[in-house]
Amino acid sequence: MCPLRLIPKIFLFDEEEIAPEVRAQRVLNKGRLPALTRYILDNPDDYVFSALTASIDGDIRFESAAGDGFGRRLGQIRIPMEARFLINDGQHRRAAIEVALKENPDLGDESIAVVFFHDTGLARSQQMFADLNRHAVRPSRSIGVLYDQRDAVAEITRLLAMRSTVFRQHVEMESSTLSARSSKLFTLSALHSANQALLQGLSLDKRQAAELAQAFWEKVDSLLPEWGLVRSRALAARDVRKDYIHSHGIALHALGRVGNTLLRESVDAAVWGSRLDRLTDVDWARSNSDWEGRAIIGGRVSKSHAQLALTVNYLRKALGLVLSPEEQSAEDAYQRGDS
Asked: Which residue has the higher pLDDT, 214 or 118?
């Protein structure tokens, strides 16, 4: 275990601009640091980090605490002061710890586990990096939302998925993609992204936000008859996903965005609900040529930022909402065929 205050001082990371074949690490992605740093600072008492892995370039000696038996496996490692500690895995954690310590020096007394290896050269260090990351699999966004106890929107999303009449039993809770034969209409990650967009910037406590989100999606559901037909088993979920786009992630996210605009104007359900009624004029069928180049590229639903922006524009116009200058610029480019 190593105190955090020592991490930036004794554990080095080779950040030189050198060719990949003579490095033993990937280049530090500084864009990841703000989120990691904020995670440490926001959760000083219960953040969780896996162990750092480091190589020691120096003469290492182990001194056993006992002569024989199990005790001989316990003892002290003697490392010369001139030895170098090179991070093999955990360079982003190290960099985030360094930044967090500058903002909150009290974190210096916290500790993190470190696994040490003897540095036997570049080839061994490169192989260590390959082995440590060979079988690493990033969990799906859906299961991240399912298990996240810190994020209030994640909690609201889970409650909607498990209790709301709109979503109950029709949300895939683990995977962030749906197979062609899946009986689910939505993924938990898509619903979470939509709720983040819907509730962004609203000054509400968690209970108010949960009630507002439920009311919003119940109103949307009343305007999209296919969702109800799936619940009554008059339509199969796979057929709705195949023939319509309104259960796909891009459509949910776009609905959240336009809903946020309405809620910022008024949280009175009578006001924003009447504005949403115009969604009945939207043709959600994939066969609608208006979706090509917006939500659909080459016959496939796209989740890119550009396609999301164009889908939001389409819904804003359907609801009679004014486009921002940036949205209007993207719309003009689309109409010219530049997108």
From this structure: 214
